[in-house]
Design goal:
The chain is α+β, with helices and mostly antiparallel strands. The protein has two domains: 275 residues, DD-peptidase/beta-lactamase superfamily (Beta-lactamase); 115 residues, Tetratricopeptide repeat domain (Serine Threonine Protein Phosphatase 5, Tetratricopeptide repeat, Alpha Horseshoe), CATH 1.25.40.10. It is built from 18 helices and 13 strands. The strands form four sheets. A six-stranded antiparallel sheet has the order 2-1-13-12-11-10, sandwiched between helices. Strands 5-9-6 form a three-stranded antiparallel sheet. A hairpin with a 2-residue loop joins β1 and β2. α2 crosses α7, α14 packs parallel to α16 and α15 runs antiparallel to α16.
């Protein structure tokens, strides 16, 4: 009995010692989780987040939670296993397959587009390499920037050959390799190249090469007709309230944005990228080496400064956006952290959320999110008129600067929301206010130019596009709009 008592005492001491070592870390992790939840809950209250979030520290999940509704009609909540369309995050899965084929000797990075798609136009296709497609430096116009694409072509069930001929074969905007310009066309073509080289569909390759080995059972390609269990509906966060996202035929964004996933599956993806399970270190190093504009192969690679410090951390990340959905994977690779955020109410500032969560992970100060200036002013316009709304803006800026985020982007966002509900004259007044507030910024002039163009006043539209171009000679949008309006005179 005495021996047993002594044994129990020793075990108690042992457990106590273990707890002394482990408990601070557990409490610390819990404290970070509480801070993350407080941050995100405030964003939900501000209508800046409706989705699912997962955060891992040193490879271990410390926080995962769903916010708001996956389906607003039936009040079905978002959870950590809700499936979201992930938009351009798809591109990193295309890049991985291309690099696997490079490692297998089936694709060459310096090979030309016409080597794999022989029917592609020769004058441009023989200049553009696989490397150019991967790094958004091909010079091909992005098809999602073509006039009428978003209003007309997103809904039409085109086949791949038609898409290549009519949407992906435009004249070069610059010599391949000399400039960076984000380009969905490049990744559509890369997905086609994967199919041509392997003799299998992009979907088959995706499962065989990545999803099945990593056990990402809740990820795949969205083909519209299939019923996906636990999938989120997409919504747009308009001034008049949430509305259903416009229909999008998903094959039209093959390789550029046609996948769905969950935050838990993308965590598995992050874990796999820390190993050589899918690709050797040699080829991963190539894949994650940035070219122009900090863009590597399917990933942005840069350093993020921590709040109130000269310190910075290496980030490998990418965002995704497609009708009704906004997503981000934010990998802090040196310390094995990852932040994954999915949102199903259209565009929102996920980059800002990731920056705040990064500061929490590194025990740095962070600010709770401020209220949406665009929504507050916009609701005043809807309820009253634009004059009253501008008076409210002046009052808020004078007396409530700590509560709202006053910046050029906020008013610009409001202007485009007003254009979206056909309040063109109200949008013009907001763009004019933005110019008064930020007279040296080029984008408000560009936006006012667009407002006047939609209103049918070409003279004023050209005037403000030219002013935007004067402030930023690299503003290609202004150049295109001026050319288009001059041609239509």
């Amino acid at each position: 009995m005495r021996v047993f008592k002594t044994y129990c005492q020793l075990m108690y001491v042992f457990v106590l010692i273990v707890c002394l070592f482990l408990t601070p870390h557990l409490i610390f992790a819990q404290d970070k989780a509480s801070q993350i939840d407080e941050l995100l809950t405030q964003m939900v209250e501000n209508k800046q987040l409706n989705g699912s979030v997962l955060v891992a520290e040193a490879g271990k999940i410390i926080f995962k939670k769903g916010y708001g509704y996956a389906n607003m009609d039936w009040k079905i909540p978002n959870t950590v296993d809700t499936k979201f369309r992930i938009g351009s995050i798809t591109k990193q899965f295309v890049a991985m397959q291309i690099m696997q084929l490079v490692e297998e000797g089936k694709v060459q990075l310096e090979a030309k587009v016409t080597d794999y798609i022989p029917e592609y136009r020769k004058d441009t296709g023989q200049k553009i390499t696989i490397h150019h497609l991967l790094t958004h430096t091909s010079g091909i116009p992005t098809y999602t920037g073509l006039p009428g694409f978003w209003s007309d072509s997103t809904r039409n069930p085109y086949d791949i050959d038609y898409m290549i001929k009519n949407f992906h074969s435009g004249d070069l905007e610059f010599e391949p390799g000399t400039e960076y310009r984000y380009n969905n066309t490049g990744y559509f073509l890369l997905a086609v190249i994967v199919e041509r080289v392997t003799g299998k569909t992009f979907e088959e390759n995706l499962h065989e090469r990545i999803l099945d080995p990593v056990r990402m059972a809740n990820s795949g390609v969205d083909r519209n007709l299939e019923i996906l269990d636990k999938s989120a509906s997409g919504y747009m966060n308009m001034l008049t309230g949430y509305v259903n996202e416009p229909y999008f035929y998903m094959m039209n964004v093959l390789g550029a944005g046609d996948m769905y996933s969950t935050v838990e599956d993308l965590y598995l993806w992050d874990r796999a990228l820390h190993t050589d399970k899918l690709l050797s270190e040699k080829y991963k190093s190539i894949m994650f080496t940035p070219f122009l504009n900090n863009y590597a192969y399917g990933w942005s690679v840069y350093y993020q400064k921590l709040n109130e410090s000269a310190d910075s951390v290496k980030v490998i990340s990418h965002s995704g956006g497609i009708n009704g959905f906004n997503t981000r994977i934010h990998r802090l690779v040196d310390d094995n952290h990852v932040v994954i955020i999915f949102n199903n109410t259209g565009s929102t500032n996920l980059n800002g959320m990731c920056a705040s969560i990064t500061n929490i992970l590194y025990d740095r100060p962070y600010e709770l999110p401020k209220k949406s200036l665009a929504r507050t002013i916009g609701e005043t316009i809807i309820a009253s008129d634009v004059k009253t709304a501008i008076e409210k803006y002046i009052d808020l800026k004078a007396n409530y600067t700590d509560d709202y985020d006053f910046n050029e982007w906020a008013l610009n966002q409001l202007g485009y929301q007003l254009l979206g509900i056909n309040r063109v004259q109200d949008a013009i007044e907001i763009f004019k206010l933005n110019i008064e507030e930020y007279p040296d910024a080029f984008n408000p002039y560009d936006s006012l130019g667009e407002g006047y163009m939609i209103a049918g006043d070409k003279e004023l539209a050209i005037k403000y596009y030219k002013k935007s171009l004067e402030l930023n000679p690299d503003n290609e949008n202004a150049v295109k709009m001026i050319e288009r309006m001059n041609q239509s005179k």
